[in-house]
Amino acid sequence: MKQARVRWRGSEHDVTVDAGTLRSTDGTAIPEAEAIWLPPGQGTVFALGLNYSDHASELTLKAPEEPLVFIKSPSTLTGHRRSCCRPDCVEFMHFEAELVAVIGFRARRVKQADAMNYVRGYTICNDFAVRDYLENYFRPGLRVKNRDSLTPLGPWITDAAEISDPHALGIRTWVNGTLRQQGSTADMIFRIPFLIEYLSNIVTLRPGDMISTGTPSGTCDVRPGDEVAVEIDGLGRLENRIVSEQQYLEELAA
Amino acid sequence: MSARPGRVCWRGNGTEISVLDDGAVTTAAGERLQSHEFSWLPPVTGTVVCVALNNAPELAGLQAEFSADPYKSPPRHPVLFIKPPATLCGHLAPVQQPRQVQSIQPGAALALVIGARARRVPAAEAWKHVAGYTLFNDFSLPTKSFFRPPVKSRCLDSFGPMGPCVVPRDELPQPEQIVVRTLVNGKARQQHSWLDLVHGVPALIEHISGFMTLEPGDVIVPSVPSARIDVVAGDVVTVEADGIGRLENRIVGEQEYYAGIEVAAA
What is the pLDDT of residues B194-237, one digit of tens each? Predict the structure, then answer.
């Protein structure tokens, strides 16, 4: 089953997605063309940096000896087909295609061997970053990774039962129809069971919390007007359009 | 003095309350609650953004360290981090000392509560978006590093007590004069104010709202201290400020903490 959240006729709906049909919990069919996609989950997002060795070397950084984790607040999250705002006057804003594990049960000091029992499902994240704003304090900082509209999630959460091996999924990013990033979740440095054990030793993971597991190599700069699509085998395709700061603020005001 | 909003757990539910002039805690329906009937929750439920390294004398003392690897140069912009919802708790809630550490470290601070959505707000307009103040305690595991996001040190369950309630901004026209004191078992151990901020409140709101929209109920903690004291299970840590109130929390061992959570959930 695929579960999503949309705004339709002024209110938010939990929906199931089946062969392109959106159906709310009370059975109402919602035409996709009228729906605004929201992030499919609302918990705390724990995001990983440098979790694929090829991406770490691409950034000329040594692969970390323990997970590099940062936290995102709800303000940065957005949904499928929503606009993503590139700040004015920056040199380099890149996409990062990531597999997200969605937590289904409270998890505290969970062992790796049990960890997958706590995963409810999976979704896709495009963890955009504005490289110009990197500083060596709490790196990567909120100004790089927690910007309005720059963490699209979705389109939906696919049940864990439908994904036999989350560490064997092709992951691809297309910019304006050209394949720009291609990898496999097999190449993660710290895999999902390890991450659940690691994080649940720090803090209790709650239902709806999400772990965004980092990106393979192949990121590149994106500009206003670019259409960016992230695909992960079995999870769908998360599409977003880059807009300028002015366009973004105008859309919000409309 | 006007009524001060807050939140408590009452009859198993998160409930909005007001604290009246005489200290009485009342529900929206006007019911007066006795202290044994409720427990305090964080007074608001928004995102908590803290600012580290924002005290000028403290930052000056770290210049040599911050010129070397891995920092290479002192911070040019406010150094921000998020305290996620799992860390947040209220006045009188227990704070855990995890089993792997010999001590934990409080970080007493005065916090701003956002009252009106702030998106791309210039400094000159910033105060209009502030509803009031509350107290915050940024607990941390002992650490010297500011290089990576402080998840492992500062994002543990219970490591962000906040409250007891929100003091409306118009009650405190000179917030930079407010002295925030840390007491351990009743003894004064630390104090500071906003007089020495590197980035003042209006500049912080302009900076933060320049890239992330702040919503009503979000919280900015303009300066968490870098110099830290150690506390251990059994200690009672109080953050106190004239005109705001006192935020008191007892440190308990990890096992006792999680046993209490299970009892509360049962």
Answer: 999 999 999 999 999 999 999 999 999 999 998 899 999 999 99
Residue A156 Cα, gap to closest chain B Cα (Å): 23
Does A62 score more than 90 pLDDT?
no
Q: Which residues contact B57 (CB under 8 A, 6 or more apart)?
A: B196
What amino acid is encoded at A27 in this protein? G
pLDDT at B264: 66
User: Mean per-residue pLDDT for A212-220?
Assistant: 93
CB contact (8 A) between residue A44 and residue B87: no
- ipTM reported for the complex, 2 dp: 0.95
Q: Which residues, other chains included, contact B94 with Cβ-Cβ below 8 Å and sequence gap of 6+? A: B158, B249, B250, B251, B252, B256, B257, B260
Task: Collect all residues of chain A within an 8 Å Cβ-Cβ radius of residue B157.
Answer: 203-204
Instruction: Report the candidate in B5, B218, B49 with the shortest Cα–Cα distance to residue B149.
Output: B49
In whole angstroms, give the CA distance from residue A118 to residue A104.
6
Asked if B18 and B32 count as a contact pair (C-beta separation under 8 A), the reply is: no
Q: What pLDDT sits at residue B214? A: 98
Residue B153 has pLDDT above 70, yes or no: yes
B 158-217 near A (Cβ less than 8 A): 208, 211-215
Q: Identify which of A172, A149, A181, A33 has the alpha carbon closest to the alpha carbon of residue B212.
A: A149
pLDDT class for B120, splitting at 50, 70, 90?
Answer: very high
The dihedral built from the CA positions of residue B262, B8, A210 and A33, taken in this order, carries a sign that is positive
Are A136 and B71 a contacting pair at CB < 8 A?
yes
Residue A58: band (very low, low, confident or very high) from pLDDT cuts 50, 70, 90: low
* Measured distance between the N- and C-terminal CA atoms of chain A, rounded to whole angstroms: 34
- The shortest C-alpha distance from A1 to chain B (Å) reads 28
- What is d(CA B51, CA B54) in angstroms, rounded to the nearest whole number? 6
Q: In what order do the strands lie in the sheet with B32-33?
A: B32-33, B25-27, B13-19, B4-10, B38-41
Q: List, in order, residues 6 or more apart from A129 with CB less than 8 Å away.
A: A93, A94, A96, A140, A144, A145, A150
Which residues on chain A are in Cβ contact (under 8 Å) with B139? none
Average pLDDT over residues B101-127: 98
Does the beta-carbon distance from A74 to B157 stay under 8 Å?
Answer: no
Q: Which amino acid is at A140?
A: P
d(CA B84, CA A44): 7
